[in-house]
Specification:
Length: 401
């Protein structure tokens, strides 16, 4: 696909997705409880075959789905994205047993996934995470968790049967879908003091003893919570990828998902723009319509201009990801940064041009105004994206010398 335009089947698919979102998903979303996982909505996304596509198609399709669903139903968009975020590490790094156990259920929408990286003292500085994975040699580490032995050199602690085991102790917070998910991709410190090089990713089913959590009430309807780990047992079978290489699992996942956060933002911006076109074309003002005021018309033009620029950058970044380009981290960061900041601007201007009615509880723009804020913070705040872009630019310069 050329980065600057969609082909006809893609355009048709996006139109279908917007219709599905409005007609089949929005009614289910409205029956859900804000701040909690809506299992009926996730199951419908599974029935429609959209969750399956998280594992069978690339970044461009992920962006098309997120943008199109966000246009008409942000709750459905977020439910889809969170299944992808939580399960992508299993898809990309899981063993056949891990994949067989979880991915079919994620795809049909009967198992809820979550991605647990952030902690109270480690958000933007994720490499500072402190959730401890302590090698456990004591007896009785949960019967039935035992598994294939690790190669001796990579096993930090092994039972007499050769199986590495740890206990996870600490906290995670701001975890989407927590504490209601069925499993968590959890990033824990296996080597103290080693920063990003001492983190391991674990697949932790929600029913493991010692795992608890609470819901957090946020501005948007996003389901989110905190998790507590009280010596939660995990074994070599639960490791995703390699021991002490979990930070790569996290960053690889974010390189895929960051452009798609941008697509979510573009979907919201387009919804706000279309609502503004409709409103300003119809609203009587000063003997004409609002759109007849040049300042209003130019404001709408500016909203469209910025939204289109963001859209192009999102699809260019997604295309780069699918092509395995070298500069994916930089492009992913640029796309997420531009699109989320743009969507904030566009939604805010849309509220302005609608006046009071946009601020009434239940109005589309009141909903979007609450939804649009968090993407500038999660998966790397805008300032963090600027840091990534600068680092990649200077690294590129050095490599070229
Ligand atoms: C709705 C929502 C859903 C989330 N879902 C998940 C999830 O599923 N899994 C998960 O692991 N986490 C999740 N998070 C957490 C999110 O990733 C963190 O909030 C984010 O990484 C920022 O961390 P922090 O909130 O601790 O802010 P801090 O790290 O304390 O940063 C606060 C602010 O400081 C500034 N800042 C930070 N670092 C820099 C820098 N290097 N340069 C300049 N300025 C800087 C920025 O303005 C930043 O917003 C979610 C958050 C929200 C709001």
């Amino acid at each position: 696909m050329p980065a600057f335009s969609l082909d006809p089947p893609q355009t048709t698919w996006c139109a279908e997705l917007r219709t599905l979102a409005a007609e089949r998903l929005r009614p289910l979303a409205e029956k859900g409880e804000p701040g909690h996982v809506n299992r009926a909505l996730v199951a419908e996304l599974g029935q429609l075959g959209l969750l399956e596509r998280l594992f069978t198609s690339g970044a461009v399709d992920l962006c098309l789905m997120r943008e199109s669903l966000a246009y008409a139903c942000t709750e459905a968009e977020t439910a889809l994205a969170l299944q992808g975020l939580g399960a992508h590490p299993v898809h990309a790094h899981g063993t056949p047993a891990q994949r067989d156990r979880w991915l079919p259920r994620v795809a049909e929408g009967t198992a809820i996934a979550a991605f647990a990286l952030s902690e109270p003292a480690a958000g933007s500085d994720a490499a500072a995470l402190e959730l401890r994975a302590e090698a456990g040699l004591e007896e009785g580490l949960a019967e039935g968790l035992v598994t294939d032995p690790l190669p001796a050199e990579s096993a930090p602690a092994a039972e007499p049967d050769g199986t590495a085991r740890w206990r996870l102790t600490g906290e995670k917070c701001w975890i989407s879908n927590a504490p209601e998910a069925d499993f968590y991709t959890v990033f824990a410190r296996t080597t103290p003091g080693a920063g990003a090089r001492g983190v391991t990713a674990f697949l932790v089913p929600a029913d493991r003893p010692g795992l608890g959590g609470t819901s957090l009430d946020m501005l948007s309807p996003h389901p989110i919570g905190a998790l507590t780990f009280d010596a939660v047992p995990v074994t070599a079978d639960d490791v995703l990828g390699e021991i002490d290489r979990g930070f790569r699992v996290a960053m690889g996942t974010l390189n895929l998902f960051r452009p798609s956060v941008g697509a979510f933002a573009v979907g919201m911006a387009r919804a706000a723009l279309d609502a503004t076109l409709a409103h300003t074309a119809e609203r009587d003002a000063f003997g004409g319509k609002l759109k007849d005021l040049q300042t209003v018309a130019h404001q709408v033009a500016e909203m469209a201009l910025r939204t289109e620029a963001a859209r192009l950058m999102v699809y260019a970044a997604a295309t780069a990801y699918d092509e395995g380009a070298e500069d994916v981290p930089k492009r992913a960061a640029m796309a997420k940064l531009l699109a989320t900041e743009t969507a904030q601007y566009v939604v805010d201007q849309a509220v302005q041009l609608h006046g009071a009615r946009a601020l009434r509880r239940g109005h589309l723009l009141e909903h979007l105004y609450r939804e649009v804020r968090a993407p500038r913070v999660y998966e790397g705040a805008s300032e963090v994206q600027r840091g990534i872009i600068a680092k990649e630019l200077y690294a590129g310069r050095e490599a070229a010398q």
